[in-house]
Specification:
283 residues; 45% helix; alpha/beta
Length: 283
């Protein structure tokens, strides 16, 4: 099978149809948004997550600079400024790539969960609690499909509860699975509104009774836990390098987009063994 470079894969899936259009203002036009989005995803694919590392990598590979749509190698401070300014754009790119995946593989199961991003130095960090105890930092709320691939995400301070963020994670599916943190009438109603059957573990604090965990939740909950482990393995705690929530969101969402780009490439080449193998392109 012919090998393909990561920048070539990114050009296929991160294209003009999914990147928001930038209005022309006064002065110099600046860098195109599509080039900025491609750069962030490319950096994750090659596991070059620091701004200095990206600059050094691009200086040695002018053909990559051209393929990503950049006229020249940006300064490291410019890349850092992009992370703080364009994190909302990366959400749009991520959801558009996720919608591509849904067209190829319809969502039968949607599993939702959150995972902590510990950061003791950020002033925006807040104390939260998980099954392992208290932590100081942020939360990544994620929904994955039956293949363990992310479809929606949201990053919040650590003190925010999981339940109110479920509507932002929903995608049309046959069933939506979640732990007791999502057990509420409003969340069940939101699932039914999109034609999905809600299956949540019952929260004993609501009724005072203890219920058995649904078998389907026991069987498939591991998919979202596996994804959370994969995400943290890719990021290697790089979110601690950035002081603003927007920059952290940018790097996390870029990592999720990179996972989907690899999955789409594996689907199109019919090599399903590489559907979550982001490490294939690590340098």
């Amino acid at each position: 099978m012919k090998t393909i470079n990561p920048h070539e894969i990114i050009r296929i899936f991160v294209n003009k149809s999914i990147v928001p259009h930038k209005k022309r203002g006064r002065g110099r036009p600046g860098y195109p948004l599509i080039a900025i989005a491609r750069l962030f995803v490319y950096a994750v694919l090659i596991r070059c997550l620091t701004d200095k590392g990206i600059v050094r990598h691009l200086l040695k590979r002018p053909y990559v600079v051209k393929a990503l749509g950049l006229k020249r190698v940006p300064h490291r401070t410019t890349i850092g400024r992009w992370r703080r300014r364009h994190y909302r754009m990366m959400y749009v790119v991520f959801e558009s790539v996720a919608n591509m995946l849904v067209t190829f593989i319809p969502t039968k199961l949607l599993i939702v969960d959150s995972t902590p991003l510990e950061d003791h130095k950020d002033s925006d960090a807040r104390w939260g609690v998980t099954t392992r105890g208290f932590f100081l930092g942020f939360k990544v709320h994620t929904s994955v499909n039956q293949l363990g691939l992310p479809l929606r995400c949201k990053i919040t301070p650590g003190n925010q509860h999981d339940s109110p963020h479920l509507p932002d994670l929903l995608v049309k599916s046959f069933m939506t699975l979640g732990d007791a943190g999502y057990d509420s009438r409003s969340n069940r109603y939101a699932c039914r509104c999109i034609g999905s059957r809600p299956i949540f573990a019952r929260n004993p604090r609501r009724s005072g009774k203890h219920y058995k965990t649904p078998i389907v939740l026991k069987r498939f909950r591991y998919l979202v836990e596996q994804f959370n482990s994969l995400l943290k393995e890719i990021l290697q705690e790089v979110w601690k390098r950035y002081s603003s929530l927007g920059a952290k969101e940018c790097v996390v969402v870029s990592a999720m987009t990179a996972i989907l780009v690899v999955a789409l490439h594996a689907i199109l080449t019919e090599d399903f063994t590489l559907i979550r193998q982001v490490s294939t392109f690590w340098m």
